[in-house]
Write a structure and sequence with these properties.
It is built from nine helices and eight strands. The chain has about 220 residues and is of the alpha/beta class. The chain binds adenosine-5'-diphosphate and magnesium ion.
């Protein structure tokens, strides 16, 4: 069994894209795979097909029924805000222990690969006391850190790696997913991050369309699980 937590230096950098790509690569290799996106904000049931939950279910080859969405994403909030703010607007809050219990149960049940997509970046608040970092530390899973290639990413990525190291989280790889705007040369960005980090750094060019089945970087990442 191998489970990995997919986190990022920030929001919208490519966690779901990378998770979809790895799921497809694992399925192509004939490996059983499951994925979770336990907390999702900005979720609208009328536009559920475009959500991270649906993207992951589609990659897993499952249907988009409410029961499937409940199974993959039990904590859903309407406002596109950090989970603490989005839940507060609905008069709710995330029960951190229940979140851990949900993840641990699924980790224990999964025979092969399980990918858990976090929410936002590594220190997004979940409630008044816990951030994604606390969630990752409590689960103590290896982490896949997704970063962009935008101007500024090197500092964001090295800061994130330092924080993960301080919390003794193992980093399986850093995926630098080429940014659509403000992008700096991908290879140079990867080479520079490598100079300052001993982690495995994988550059992922900007690909057109959805995460493809055959892209070699995804197969390589799937092999790390
Ligand atoms: N390497 C890439 N090539 C093409 N599109 C990408 C790439 N990385 C991210 N995207 C796209 O950028 C957008 C934001 O990525 P997403 O995976 O949703 O980010 P996150 O899950 O971290 O919020 C999505 O539309 C996604 O498909
Ligand atoms: Mg996402």
């Amino acid at each position: 069994m191998s489970a990995v937590f997919v986190t990022a230096t920030g929001t919208d950098v490519g966690k779901t894209f990378v998770t979809e790509g790895i799921i497809r690569a694992l399925r192509r290799a004939g490996r059983p795979v499951d994925a979770l996106k336990p907390i999702i904000s900005g979720f609208d049931m009328h536009r559920a097909a475009a959500s991270d939950s649906s993207r992951l279910l589609t990659a897993l080859g499952r249907n988009l029924k409410t029961t499937e969405i409940n199974a993959i994403s039990p904590w859903r909030f309407k406002a596109p805000l950090s989970p603490d703010m989005a839940s507060r607007l609905e008069g709710a809050s995330i029960d951190f222990e229940a979140l851990l219990g949900f993840c641990r149960k699924r980790i224990a049940a999964q025979p092969d690969a399980l990918l858990i997509e976090g929410v936002g970046g590594i220190m997004v608040p979940l409630d008044d006391r816990h951030t994604v970092l606390d969630w990752m530390a409590a689960l103590n899973l290896p982490v896949l850190l997704v970063a962009g290639s935008y101007l500024g990413t090197i500092s964001h990525t090295l800061s994130a790696l330092d924080v993960l190291d301080r919390r003794r989280l193992q980093v399986t790889a850093v995926v630098v997913s080429e940014s659509a705007t403000n992008a700096v040369d991908l290879d140079e960005t990867v080479a520079t991050i490598r100079r300052f980090s001993s982690s495995d750094i994988v550059g992922l060019p900007r690909l057109s369309g959805g995460a493809p089945d055959h892209y070699p970087a995804f197969a390589r990442l799937a092999d790390l699980l």
